[in-house]
């Protein structure tokens, strides 16, 4: 038995590139290549967010829907904690017991934030028609945080108590972060992949008649990418757990880099990019059906509702017909998100306001004048 929490086969040999890249330090400077290639895309994404921060702040103030601020906050939280992990991992000596423990705790912390975001995004997408109050959003974030906490505590415990020998470095006598071991990694990846494939099948099964499913293509593309990522990750972990195939380590290296480097930009691009780029905030999710529910005290306007200045009614958007189950994008440039009335009015010129009033009130078609005799 070579691995307590992993494989019955010997660990992958030290000279394989896919393992070497995980612990190789540049000029013995504690800066590992693995941390560096994860740091660079996250740093570039932070720079992108900083450049667009003022514009994003104005857009968030313009909309009364809290869902956009929630997504934006999750994006910032994920990328900041990823940068912190990379920076700290480059300063501590992972080959020492204390340094290795800190490195693993940071990996688990990043996984907690990313998993909580991953589950929250899916719930918001499937139940956005009911996510119409700040309290409901808080409940979702609390629930996903608790689930993610249980997941990461289990992963961290396995990682510290029963490290996988596949990630043991004999020459330096310490263990790399092994994501809880191959068996745990394989099982969790497979479960998530099954869940995502079930979500992809929802529009095609009879259950869709009882659900208000999103019709935007981008949401389902997002789910498909995660399903493929988890499936590939499960295959790689399975190759390492039940076989001595060195290619399995290369597979999980690629999926790990994609997840920890590009997942947060994917969330931003899918759910926020068009919101911050169009002249007016747009529709986030479109649904084939909407259900009437009691209003809560802290209820706010939904992205599918119109601003007070719009000439279209809600029914124009709620009951719009489509020949396909999916639409082209998750956002719709032609739609509008509810805007604060004062902000919306401030965007109009005095002439447009006057002309708008004249259209609504109507102007007399003729004027009768009286000639007053001159004195």
Structural notes for this entry:
With 375 residues, this protein is mainly alpha-helical. The protein has a domain at 17-277: Rhopdopsin 7-helix transmembrane proteins (Up-down Bundle). The chain has helices at residues 17-23, 33-51, 53-62, 66-89, 97-126, 134-161, 182-201, 217-241, 247-271, 273-277, 314-318, 341-346, 350-361, and strands at 168-169, 174-175.
Structural class computed from helices and strand pairing: mainly alpha
The CATH topology of one domain is given as: Rhopdopsin 7-helix transmembrane proteins
Report the helical percentage: 55-70%
Q: Tell me about the largest β-sheet.
A: 2 strands, antiparallel
CATH architecture title of one domain: Up-down Bundle
Q: Name the helix and strand elements from N-terminus to C-terminus, one letter apiece.
A: HHHHHHEEHHHHHHH
Strand content: under 5%
In short:
This protein is mainly alpha-helical. It is built from 13 helices and two strands; from the N terminus they run ααααααββααααααα. The chain has a two-stranded antiparallel sheet with strand order 1-2.
